[in-house]
Amino acid sequence: MTGPMPLDLASIRQAPKALLHDHLDGGLRPATVLELAADCGYDQLPARDAESLGAWFRDAADSGSLERYLETFAHTVAVMQTPEGLRRVARECAIDLAEDGVVYAEVRFAPEQHLEKGLTLDEVVEHTLAGFREGEALAAEKGNVIRVTCLLTAMRHAARSREIAELTVRFRDSGVGGFDIAGAEAGFPPTRHLDAFEYLRANHAHFTIHAGEAFGLPSIHEALAFCGCDRLGHGVRITDDISVPGAIEEAQLGLVANYVRDMRVPLELCPSSNVQTGAVPSLDKHPFDLLARLRFRVTVNTDNRLMSDTSMSEEMRKLVDTFGYGWSDLERFTINAMKSAFIPFPDRLKIIDEVIKPGYAVLLG
């Protein structure tokens, strides 16, 4: 081959990808939701066939409201209450990501939401991790190698964050890479969970915080200054602290934005989801390109593949079509993500040097 491969969806699928922000309960196959609902007797699904159900999730998530968007999870969480359900969803998650060219993924979920059938928090995590390992093995049999790391999420409106932080530390040698808090931001600041973050820091554990998605700069400031997070989940509202009066070279950054860029705090940007939840008005107005050009550590993520009817390849294609990115840009965003992963440095470097760089070298010709 001479010269780079054409930048289309098919070729993007061949590119090695690193994913940091993907919700397990937001990535189910519609057919799996239907089958698990039948198995566990859940009869409140809004559609009875996979195609219609997938369309319902996408349409319901397109409301432009984070709160309305989050309501769709009631159906997926409802079918993830048994060992079999958790293992299957995790197994299929790993397989689906691997088939899309994802070589490293961090998938998060909230164990506290999966206790309705009598499972303990530890059992929830054990079954989910087992599913990921099964999925990795099945993907490898098809020649699609992937490493999946699990992040444990605490719900910001609940009071179990310290318990989930302890769970994170307890399972960090078994496939759990870190901690997260999620849920509606307004009225539930991250500082409500300071005891959890203090415990994590005391135990040298990684954590990210959903901040700067539906709520503005104060959410980001608290996540960094008081909680001490390693990464920002979404973080699109960092642009509230950036002024661009003219050319990009004239951009003026406030104290928070300067800190995020100077300290290379990774931004877990999720283009399609950010539009769906109303965090940004449209894809062409997404701050991804501004932040990338200002050399923030931007990463590309799916957030919820079912609700956004998306994949990592789709998210990259949309960015290519919207902002004119080339292979070298996609490689940079992928390496940004891999540098920011919650696994040991040698492991990150190995994937960058032995998988990502060689993979993009082929695509670049």
Automatic annotation (TrEMBL):
<feature type="binding site">
    <location>
        <position position="210"/>
    </location>
    <ligand>
        <name>Zn(2+)</name>
    </ligand>
</feature>
<protein>
    <recommendedName>
        <fullName>Adenosine deaminase</fullName>
        <ecNumber>3.5.4.4</ecNumber>
    </recommendedName>
</protein>
<feature type="binding site">
    <location>
        <position position="183"/>
    </location>
    <ligand>
        <name>substrate</name>
    </ligand>
</feature>
<dbReference type="GO" id="GO:0005829">
    <property type="term" value="C:cytosol"/>
</dbReference>
<dbReference type="InterPro" id="IPR001365">
    <property type="entry name" value="A_deaminase_dom"/>
</dbReference>
<feature type="domain" description="Adenosine deaminase">
    <location>
        <begin position="16"/>
        <end position="357"/>
    </location>
</feature>
<keyword id="KW-0479">Metal-binding</keyword>
<feature type="binding site">
    <location>
        <position position="25"/>
    </location>
    <ligand>
        <name>substrate</name>
    </ligand>
</feature>
<feature type="binding site">
    <location>
        <position position="303"/>
    </location>
    <ligand>
        <name>Zn(2+)</name>
    </ligand>
</feature>
<comment type="function">
    <text>Catalyzes the hydrolytic deamination of adenosine and 2-deoxyadenosine.</text>
</comment>
<dbReference type="GO" id="GO:0009117">
    <property type="term" value="P:nucleotide metabolic process"/>
</dbReference>
<keyword id="KW-0862">Zinc</keyword>
<dbReference type="Pfam" id="PF00962">
    <property type="entry name" value="A_deaminase"/>
</dbReference>
<dbReference type="GO" id="GO:0008270">
    <property type="term" value="F:zinc ion binding"/>
</dbReference>
<feature type="binding site">
    <location>
        <position position="23"/>
    </location>
    <ligand>
        <name>Zn(2+)</name>
    </ligand>
</feature>
<dbReference type="GO" id="GO:0006154">
    <property type="term" value="P:adenosine catabolic process"/>
</dbReference>
<dbReference type="GO" id="GO:0046936">
    <property type="term" value="F:2'-deoxyadenosine deaminase activity"/>
</dbReference>
<dbReference type="InterPro" id="IPR028893">
    <property type="entry name" value="A_deaminase"/>
</dbReference>
<dbReference type="GO" id="GO:0046103">
    <property type="term" value="P:inosine biosynthetic process"/>
</dbReference>
<keyword id="KW-0378">Hydrolase</keyword>
<feature type="binding site">
    <location>
        <position position="23"/>
    </location>
    <ligand>
        <name>substrate</name>
    </ligand>
</feature>
<feature type="site" description="Important for catalytic activity">
    <location>
        <position position="234"/>
    </location>
</feature>
<dbReference type="GO" id="GO:0004000">
    <property type="term" value="F:adenosine deaminase activity"/>
</dbReference>
<feature type="binding site">
    <location>
        <position position="21"/>
    </location>
    <ligand>
        <name>Zn(2+)</name>
    </ligand>
</feature>
<dbReference type="GO" id="GO:0043103">
    <property type="term" value="P:hypoxanthine salvage"/>
</dbReference>
<dbReference type="InterPro" id="IPR032466">
    <property type="entry name" value="Metal_Hydrolase"/>
</dbReference>
<keyword id="KW-0546">Nucleotide metabolism</keyword>
<feature type="active site" description="Proton donor">
    <location>
        <position position="213"/>
    </location>
</feature>
<dbReference type="InterPro" id="IPR006330">
    <property type="entry name" value="Ado/ade_deaminase"/>
</dbReference>
<dbReference type="GO" id="GO:0009168">
    <property type="term" value="P:purine ribonucleoside monophosphate biosynthetic process"/>
</dbReference>
<comment type="similarity">
    <text>Belongs to the metallo-dependent hydrolases superfamily. Adenosine and AMP deaminases family. Adenosine deaminase subfamily.</text>
</comment>
